[in-house]
Amino acid sequence: GPLVGNLIGEDHVNYVLMYNMLTGIRIAVSRCQAKIRRPLTPDDYTARHKYSFDIVGNELTPSAKYDFKFKDYAPWVFRELREDYFHLDPADYLLSLTAKYILSELGSPGKSGSFFYFSRDYRFIIKTIHRSEHKFLRKILPKYYEHIKTNPHTLLSRFYGLHRVKLPHGRKIHFVIMNNLFPPHRDVHETFDLKGSTVGRLYPEEKAKENPRATLKDLNWISRGKVLELGPEKRALLTEQLRRDSELLKSLHVMDYSLLVGIHNMRRGNRDNVRSNTLKVFSPNMPVMRRKPTQVKGASSPDAIALRRIMRESDPKRFGSETIKLPDEDTAGERQHFLFYQDEGGLRATDEVNDNMDTIYYLGIIDTLTPYTSLKKLEHFWKGLSADRHKISPVPPQEYGDRFFSFMKAIMRGGEGGARFKSE
Ligand code: ATP
Ligand code: CA
Ligand code: CA
């Protein structure tokens, strides 16, 4: 399920990795950021900047606690993406990630072995990726950039940076930084990871009863009779964006991606488990408070917000939400710029006459870096022997994209509710 992580302290096995990742980001990103903006050149897409950290330091890199090497890939491209298209404030981005070395580790929720880390304010996710995914992202970066530029409201994962840490014994860890689709202080009551495939796409319902935060799959969606409740306008807009995004993914020959759907029921609110969305440094029973913004000049500047976060986290008792307002991160910040993340950080359900309903959806297309390689072709062959070749998850990219898009259309109100998929 979403957003349950363990804080990484100094005694954690991945503390050194976290330290190195954050130090690399802090130095590399601020170095690029300090330069005067210039138009991108074709070389910027393949650029990589190397940093070598050690305990002594030199004029280029400050001393670090450990020896390691760091690579920053296409820094100018990601900088432009962050600033111009993802609407991130540069200082805010760096402060969120690195002002304090606090990450929480979700571990490895998928089968791929990737690790997920949340920034301390839960806005950003660091995902370690396989070398092949890393190579692939570099290859498609010009097309990704172009898509983001022409589709400001895309549902695709927003990639903010691509980096690599190399440890002294030679191990290389590649990672991306991306948006957390789920809001920092709102409960997500149900989560679905939908691919439009039905074979093996069931999370056992008995297990789901014990673990209500589990990420459910396509067949759970169908058997629970879920529908994306969206009025005609939102439905049309979402359908069109999904169409464009899946066209891009088809043209990139990727597959295995999914639509992540988080459902927040406004009547249930945050009572159940507010803790799980919040770092453990918060007092566990702290209610999520919505107070009026403080009317101090500059109080809502990104620096001030970040500073308040740091204060709150360094001394939660004193600076807990009772005395310091939690910035309204759901609606403030970058999300206000995006059509599908505008309502409390997500998309509010509406009825047929476009009136608001009591549900907020958090939607996005995730896990978009798996090309249809020979490995997948092989998997397709083996799985295809025992099940219908068209319903299994690894089908060729064209078919995958079409099936994905039809499924997403079907699960919206007015669609076929996935019934067609059930009877297939
Ligand atoms: P696999 O390849 O086995 O599917 P993976 O390691 O590539 O797994 P993902 O599919 O990217 O992992 O994500 C696994 C889970 O992590 C998702 O089902 C979702 O619950 C959570 N997750 C991934 N990306 C995000 C995101 N951007 N925002 C919120 N949650 C996310
Ligand atoms: Ca996945
Ligand atoms: Ca994956």
Gist?
The chain has 424 residues and is α+β, with helices and mostly antiparallel strands. It has helices at 15-33, 75-85, 90-98, 131-150, 205-210, 218-223, 232-251, 302-314, 316-319, 374-386, 397-410, 419-423, and strands spanning 6-7, 48-53, 68-73, 103-107, 116-119, 124-129, 159-166, 172-179, 190-194, 215-216, 258-265, 347-350, 356-366. A hairpin with a 5-residue loop joins strand 7 and strand 8 (172-179).
Q: Order of strands in the sheet with the most strands? A: 1-4-5-6-8-7-3-2
**Alpha-carbon distance between the two ends:** 29 Å
Radius of gyration: 22 Å
Instruction: Identify every distinct bound molecule in the structure, by name, code or SMILES.
Output: adenosine-5'-triphosphate, calcium ion
Measured as a percent range, the helix fraction is 25-40%
Largest sheet: 8 strands, antiparallel
What is the ordering of alpha helices and beta strands?
A: EHEEHHEEEHEEEHEHHEHHEEHHH
**Total strand count, please?**
13
Low-confidence spans? 274-299, 314-331
* Individual helix count: 12
CATH topology of the largest domain, anyone? Phosphatidylinositol Phosphate Kinase II Beta
CATH superfamily name of the largest domain? Phosphatidylinositol Phosphate Kinase II Beta
Residue fraction in strands: 15-25%
For the record, the CATH architecture of the largest domain stands as 2-Layer Sandwich
- Count of structural domains: 2
Approximate shape: globular
Structural class: alpha+beta
CATH class of the largest domain: Alpha Beta
